[in-house]
Amino acid sequence: MHTDLPLFPSQASTIALLEEADAVVVIGMRLDDVETGRWSLPFRNVIQIDVDAAAIGRAYPVEAGIVGDARLALEGLLDELGSGPAAVDDGWGAGRAA
C-alpha cells in the first residue's frame, strides 16, 4: 500500500487540511477504515454524495446527504448555490497541498 500519497489518511498534511476546513464534500467514497485511517480523520460538516443511499452517513455523521450520480448531484448543487460572489481564500491549504 502506498502511504506517500499526498492525501493518504496518515499524512499530517491531510489531517491539517481537514482540521482547517469549514466543510468536507465526500463524493462516492464509503469512508471505510482504509480510506479514513481507521476512522481517525477529523471530518466535520460532511456533505456526502453517493449513488447508494445506505452509504450516506454510515461511517461518519453527515450534515447533508445527496443520493444520486456524482456528476448530476454536483451539477444540481452548483445550480442551487448559484453564481453569486464567492468568498475565496486563494492561499487556503497552499502550504500543505504541495
Helix-strand topology string = HEEEHH
Helicity range? 25-40%
**CA-to-CA gap between the ends?**
21 Å
Q: Average pLDDT across residues?
A: 78
Poorly predicted parts: none
- The number of helices is 3
Structural category:
alpha/beta
Strands ordered across the widest β-sheet: 1-2-3
Number of strands: 3
- Please tell me what the overall shape is: flat
How much of the sequence lies in strands comes to 5-15%
Biggest pleated-sheet summary: 3 strands, parallel
Give a quick summary of the entry.
The chain is α/β, with parallel strands linked by helices and 98 residues long.
Overview features:
alpha/beta, 3-stranded parallel beta sheet, 13% strand, 98 residues
Topology:
Blueprint: H1 12-20, E1 24-27, E2 46-50, E3 64-67, H2 70-81, H3 94-97
Parallel strand pairs: 1-2, 2-3
Write up what this structure looks like.
26% of the residues lie in helices and 13% in strands. The protein contains three helices and three strands. A three-stranded parallel beta sheet has the order 1-2-3, with helices on one face. The two termini are 21 Å apart.
